[in-house]
Amino acid sequence: MDEPLTDLPAATHTPLSVALIDDHGLCRQGLAELLQLRAGMRVVGSAGNPTDALALLHRETPDLLVMDLRMPAMDGLTLLGKLRAEGIETPVVILTMSDSPDDLAEALRAGVRGYLLKDMDPEDVMRSIARCGQGELVIAPAMAGKLSGLLRLGQAESPKGKTVKLTEREREILQFLVGGKSNKTIARALNISHDTVKLHVRHILAKLGLSSRVEAAVFAVEHGVSGHYPQAPQAPQTSAPDNPLPSHAAGAVRPPPR
After folding, report:
1. Nearest residue to 205 (alpha-carbon basis) of 110, 247, 197, 195
2. CB 176 within 8 A of CB 151
3. How far apart are CA 191 and CA 194, in angstroms?
4. What residues contact 171, with CB distance under 8 A and at least 6 apart?
5. Closest CA to 92 of 53, 144, 40
6. What is the pLDDT of residue 149?
7. Burial class of residue 123 in the structure, from the number of CB atoms within 10 Å of its CB (0-12 exposed, 13-18 middle, 19+ buried)
8. Average of pLDDT values for 212-229?
9. What distance separates the 2 farthest-apart alpha carbons in the chain?
10. Of 40-54, 181-195, 216-230, which gets the smallest average pLDDT?
11. What pTM value is reported for the model?
């Protein structure tokens, strides 16, 4: 049997608890065994349909919910919208076969913690889920490249309102945010301090009138990277925390076409 992984992010207190939602029983079973036997995580339950998923999430409070995107009874993002509507704020990691940039953009807009592909190496999936459990936004490498392409090509009409300008350094960091990179990774890549990255992220969020890194990444995809951005409507809060994720879905979720 394969040995347990030894290079996963260390759990701060107890093993990471995970719930699994997938309509394929074999996928649920295989992933549960990998996460428990090789990654040292605790799988608190699994479900194959939205009714069972809602019941599970009302009964259990896992650290993460790993969920398929395309399921017969209800797609993953619609289910995520129902969970948020019922007050269930468990961070969600999408594990899917879909490598569509549109699906990725919809998932990010919905506020997911990660977007992983089922054809990734199993060890990379386990490491990515562990990183999500540490609060990172993690995107499958193949999808990060596609999202960067969307960022370069993205165009949108500017809504009425104030236009703000990002500095060259802020545009650089915004592109890293689109790729789902952590502050530590950005700091190493740009050879600047972790605190400097945090400060730049705060400035980006404040300038754009947004409250999370995910919202900034999606906003950049929708408006391109010219450096001039229409400021988003101001939220009632008075500060823009350097949060890795929003605490709720950002905007309405439209089910992707089946």
Report:
1. 197
2. no
3. 9
4. 225, 227
5. 53
6. 58
7. middle
8. 65
9. 60
10. 216-230
11. 0.64
